[in-house]
Amino acid sequence: MTTRTLTQQLIAHSEPHWQNYIQHDFVRQLAAGTLPAECFEHYLKQDYLFLIQFARAFGLAAYKSRTLDELRQAQSSLHGIIDIELDLHIGYCQQFGISRQALEETVESTPNMAYTRYVLERGMAGDLLDLNVALAPCILGYAEVAKWLQNQSFLVRQGNPYADWVDMYSSAEYQQVADTHRKACDALSIEQLGQARVQELSRTFDAATRLEIDFWQMGLDCR
C-alpha cells in the first residue's frame, strides 16, 4: 500500500517536467535580477489575462461542487482572484509602468491560450477533481518555485527589481493558499481513486506542467 498522497504521486509521475518547470531559466534570471525588463513586463501582461481565465475556472469549480464545503472553497478562491489578486496585480504592474488600459489591450499569447483553455476544458469534461488537478501545477508550483529560490545562492535581493515577486509567493499567505489547494486534491487517497483514475489525473497534471514550462518560455521569447 502506497503512503503517497495524490499530489505527491502526480509530481513524481511528472518528473523531469516538474523540475524543468520549478527551475526554469525564467525564474532563475528573475531571482538573479538579470531578466530583461521587457521579458518581465510581457509576462506581467499575460499573467493578467491568465488570472481572468483562472477566475473563470473557479467559477466553473463552483458549478462542479457537490458539497457546501466545496462550494465555499470555490467561492473563496473566486473572491480571492477577482477582489484581491487582480487588484494587487494591477497595482504591481503600475510599478513597472504598465497601466490598466495597457493590460486590457494586451493580445493574449498562444501559450497563454493553450494553457488556460486546457484547464477549462479539463474542468468542463471532468469533475471538480479533474479541474483541481489541472489548476495544481500553477497553484502548487508557484509556491514551490518561491521556496526553491529562497535557498539558491544566485538569489539577489539588494537592487533586484523582481525581489518582491519572490517574496510574494514565498509568503505565509500564499503558501497557505497552495496548502489549501493541495488538501483539496488530496481529499481522496490513491487507493480510493484507483489506478486507472490516478493515471488519468497524472496525464492531466503532466500536461498542465508542460504548459507552465511554455508559459515561462513565453516570457523569455518575447524579444
The share of residues in helices is: over 70%
Instruction: Please outline the major beta sheet.
Output: none
H/E topology pattern: HHHHHHHHHHHH
How much beta, percentage-wise? under 5%
Summarize the structure.
This protein has 223 residues and is an all-alpha fold. Helix content is 78%, strand content 0%. It starts with 5 loop residues before the first helix and ends with a helix.
Characterization of this structure:
The protein has 223 residues and is mainly α. The chain has twelve helices and no strands. It is globular, with a radius of gyration of 17 Å. The mean pLDDT is 95.
SSE arrangement:
Elements: H1 6-13, H2 17-22, H3 25-32, H4 37-64, H5 68-94, H6 100-104, H7 110-125, H8 128-150, H9 163-170, H10 172-185, H11 190-193, H12 195-220
Helix pairs in contact: 1-12, 4-5, 4-7, 4-8, 4-12, 7-8, 7-12, 8-9, 8-10, 8-12
List keywords for this structure.
single chain; mainly alpha; 223 residues; 12 helices
